């Protein structure tokens, strides 16, 4: 992949894809429905997609791949979308946000996935005034919307009975639900890490812990702005959002708060585990130093005795004692044993 394009110095509203170079073709999916009818079809050409659009149905046009800026501009011209919005759609590093342009509402967020670590892709959802929802995904692949498509295909739930505003809510709700699944997997990893930290802390554990902390920082950056996004979505007075949908948005806001609380809890746990690791390593070092200190303390008097009788003076009466060596050996052993018993009595051992 080529390095990201530098957009520094470009005028506002310039539609430039800021991510790595992509070679895959863009896929356009049209999904139309009402309470009785349903149509789903894939396209590679946007003009051909427009030929199948019906005015009396709810329309969901999903674009997989935001690297084709010409297509994004073409869609923007067709639906009268502001160039600043198109710029945000193509910017894969755009911070999650919600904006009200009167004729349409745009929500930009991060759709997360988890495969040994957290991955994210840019997701933009635009609610238009002609019962149309546009969604732009950064990559083509599995996403959180399969369950929504299944409901629409099978006519389950209330989605086929509601309007485009409810569809936009369902898409955002699916993204937030995916956050819960990812947090559950991270929670399982934290439990394993905590057990390993208590039983056998080592450098590998420390490296794993640092990786988890980085993931939580990454996750926090993606999740925290969602509270403001959904709150603005629910509180905006645009006529595109019906009163019945606002109740669901209020519930979605509560779900987002739960996600944020869980993220903060995990961050606190990881910070505490870092302290536990440092304490465990420090305690192990203290135990080692304790043993070495006791050994050194035991050998200090023995070295003192050996040092005295190791001096090369002629006038040392004990040197000519017949059993002097054995007596001194017994004395040294007695001193060592006495010190060991003393340390145990003081509970230093």
Distance between the termini: 61 Å
Biggest sheet: strand arrangement: 2-1-3-7-6-5-4
Q: Using the coordinates above, name the CATH class of the largest domain.
A: Alpha Beta
Q: Tell me the fraction of residues in β-strands, as a range.
A: 5-15%
- Indicate the overall shape: rod-shaped
Write down the Rg: 35 Å
Largest sheet entry = 7 strands, mixed
- Residues in helices, as a percent range: 40-55%
**Uncertain runs:** none
CATH superfamily of the largest domain: CorA soluble domain-like
Domain count: 2
- What string, H for helix and E for strand, traces the elements in order? EEHEHHEEEEHHHHH
Please supply descriptive tags for the structure shown above.
55% helix; Beta Polymerase, domain 2; 8 helices; 7 strands; 349 residues; seven-stranded mixed sheet; 2 domains; single chain
What does this structure look like?
The protein is of the alpha+beta class and 349 residues long. It has 2 domains: 27-279, Beta Polymerase, domain 2 (2-Layer Sandwich); 290-345, Methane Monooxygenase Hydroxylase, Chain G, domain 1 (Up-down Bundle), CATH 1.20.58. Helices cover 55% and strands 15% of the residues. The chain contains 8 helices and 7 strands; from the N terminus they run E-E-H-E-H-H-E-E-E-E-H-H-H-H-H. It has helices at 46-51, 69-79, 83-90, 146-154, 164-199, 203-235, 243-308, 324-345; strands spanning 27-33, 38-43, 58-64, 97-100, 104-114, 118-128, 132-137. A 7-stranded mixed β-sheet has the order 2-1-3-7-6-5-4, sandwiched between helices. Helix 5 packs antiparallel against helix 6 (203-235), helix 5 (164-199) runs parallel beside helix 7 (243-308) and helix 7 (243-308) packs antiparallel against helix 8. The longest helix has 66 residues, at 243-308. The two termini are 61 Å apart.
